[in-house]
Specification:
The chain is mainly β. It has strands at 6-8, 14-17, 36-42, 46-52.
Length: 64
Amino acid sequence: MAKHFEVKIGDGTVVARSMTLGSTDLAAAQPGSKPVKYDCPLPRDESGRAVLISLELSQKGPPE
């Protein structure tokens, strides 16, 4: 079983992704206050399940 991840910031810019995704973006779901589970297509025409977790950070940049 392959494991894929993708991290995006608020404007949708990808800041990190698993090498197994290559240049493929994971399908997105609407962010909310609770984790959202949904079906999504994966590379090589595989189907998968995804969990979307939205976090709001109060500090920008590295910790001081």
